[in-house]
Design goal:
Blueprint lengths: L5 H5 L5 E3 L2 E3 L6 E5 L6 E6 L3 H18 L4 H17 L1 H12 L3 H18 L2 H4 L4 E6 L2 E9 L2 E5 L7 H12 L3 E5 L6 H13 L6 E3 L4 H9 L3 E7 L2 H13 L3 E5 L5 E4 L5 H13 L11 E5 L6 H9 L19 H16 L3 E4 L18 E4 L6 H4 L6 E7 L2 H9 L3 E2 L2 E4 L3 H10 L5 E3 L15 E2 L2 E2 L6 H7 L1 E9 L17
């Protein structure tokens, strides 16, 4: 946790949301929210006390008693209103996001919009939360299922998508009848809090949505609290593994979307210009700070000759503050993140990879204090090198060579992670072989970042995911509800069913 500077002491305090009220924390522990392009202190965020966390959970538990009984149509209408409010405030939300997170304004709008799509999906909850019925499974017996809410659920979200990922979580949880405690990233909570203000304006009742802030203590409190029934997490593999183990041992449902090392295969028959543009955008957009970014490209056969053109394409990308016109990638989130990325680039050189394009210390006029690193490309990358084995979370692309499609598939399947993968080709046969043989949960065919729309579920796999049900889509309905099976038999007045079951109605 950072010490609070004199500038930070003068900055506005981010509030907690407890039982429908935005309240200032009584904590003595604070962290600064810093603009990564300028180092300006935008706000100070509290690390909530244990008592405040308990208050938030208690408010959610109390609100659940009435919220779970709220008609499904009434819940859906709140999210119809909420999506209207998000659309009306899109520019403001994007500006807030860019200021605290650093991504370009168009990318920030995309962040909000992808979350908005899930809010739209939550408004369809009446069609999603349907049980099943089997009529007359035995003599006069029907069996049916109810999908009932769990109770208090919680979400822990990362810095890289401070609008989209909270919107992956609380709308679906609340629409299905649960109440929610959210812990956004302490590095950039401002846009998340604005989204929560709009949620209350849309009609979410007091206590149904609560927000706490903090670090490790807050995470552990969520994992341990006996009144929290389910935990959703997106973030690093280290923290996600800790959350999954600790919360599971406490008897909770847990879904953790974690680290990745995504690969794309480029076959020689691919459309060269479209492929190079797609790789550049997926590898360097958002400064590489995406769990679905594309940090590894496998060039197959003759496609290996495309490397110089890929380097030239990367050189054309503009590095600047996210507010600047024409910026393609902004700063990384913090000084420590920048130091880590630069250190890994050094390691790459030391490990024997060839540095084709060095993005360290770019010249960004007017933003000399920013946490900038430009597009960086290595060739000759092999497993065992730090730049391949670790998730860099920066604009660094590793280029690998393979002789055949089979060799490329085998190479990708040997990596422990399984968030996303892609192939670039004009061959239907090659694409079909790839989608069948690749052991990765989300596959793109000429699509570099294959994140599914909310009609489907995010389906990362292997070391990138813990828990069997993914965010949004049909899977998350099952995650946020308990299936209750009812077997019913009714007797008419003349039937005793073999026993004296007559009931007097007088």
């Amino acid at each position: 946790m950072n010490a609070i500077s004199e500038q930070g002491l003068k900055a506005p305090a981010v509030k907690l949301l407890i039982n429908g009220q935005f309240v200032e924390s009584k904590t003595t522990e604070w962290r600064e929210v810093i603009n990564p392009a300028t180092q300006e202190v935008l706000a100070r965020v509290p690390f909530a006390t244990q008592d405040e966390i308990n208050q938030a959970v208690a408010a959610a538990k109390e609100a659940f008693k009435t919220w779970r009984k709220t008609p499904i149509g009434a819940r859906a209408r709140i999210f119809l209103k909420y999506q209207e409010l998000i659309r009306a405030n899109m520019k403001e939300l994007a500006a807030l996001l860019t200021a605290e997170q650093g991504k370009t304004l168009p990318d920030a709008e995309g962040d909000v919009f992808r979350g908005l799509e899930v809010v739209e999906h939550a408004a369809s909850v009446g069609n999603l939360q349907l049980g099943e019925l089997a009529n007359n499974v035995a003599n006069g017996v029907d069996t049916y299922t109810l999908l009932q809410p769990l109770g208090v659920c919680a979400g822990i979200t990362p810095f890289n998508f401070p609008a989209m990922i909270p919107l992956w979580m609380f709308p679906m949880a609340i629409a299905t009848g649960n109440t929610f405690v959210l812990k956004p990233s302490e590095q950039d909570p401002m846009v998340t809090m604005r989204l929560c203000e709009l949620a209350l304006e849309a009609g979410i009742p007091a206590g149904v949505l609560n927000v706490i802030h903090g670090g490790e203590m807050a995470v552990n409190a969520i994992c341990d609290h006996p009144d929290i029934k389910a935990v959703s997490f997106v973030g690093s593999t280290k923290v996600g593994t800790h959350v999954y183990n600790r919360a599971s041992l406490a008897g909770k449902r847990v879904q953790c979307m974690m680290g990745a090392k995504n690969h794309a295969i480029v076959l020689p028959d691919a459309n060269k210009e479209q492929t190079l543009n797609a790789i550049a955008g997926a590898s360097f957009g958002a400064a590489g700070q995406r769990c679905m970014a594309l940090p590894v490209v496998v060039l197959v056969g003759e496609a290996q000759k495309w490397l110089p053109e890929l380097v030239e394409k990367a050189k054309t990308l503009k590095v600047s503050a996210g507010t600047e016109q024409g910026a393609d990638l902004g700063p990384v989130i913090s000084c420590s993140a920048l130091s880590r990325i630069e250190g890994l680039i050094e390691r790459g050189v030391a490990d024997g990879a060839k540095l084709e394009l060095d993005g360290r210390k770019p010249n960004v006029p007017g933003f000399e204090k920013g946490n900038f690193v430009g597009p960086t490309i290595f060739s000759g990358v092999k497993p065992g090198m730090a730049i391949y084995d670790q998730e860099i979370f920066g604009p660094v692309l590793c280029v690998v060579e393979a002789a055949t499609l089979e060799e490329a598939i085998e190479f990708i399947n040997a990596n422990p992670n399984g968030n996303g993968t892609a192939i670039f080709t004009q061959s239907g046969a090659a694409a079909h072989k790839f989608q069948e043989d690749i052991d990765v949960g989300q596959v793109g065919i000429n699509v570099p970042i294959p994140v599914p729309v909310p009609l489907f579920s995010f389906s990362g796999s292997r070391a990138s995911k813990l828990g069997d049900l993914g965010p949004y889509g049909k899977q998350v309905i099952l995650f946020y509800t308990q299936t209750k099976t009812v077997t019913a038999r009714w007797f008419d007045d003349q039937s005793t069913g073999g026993l004296n079951t007559t009931i007097s109605l007088k």
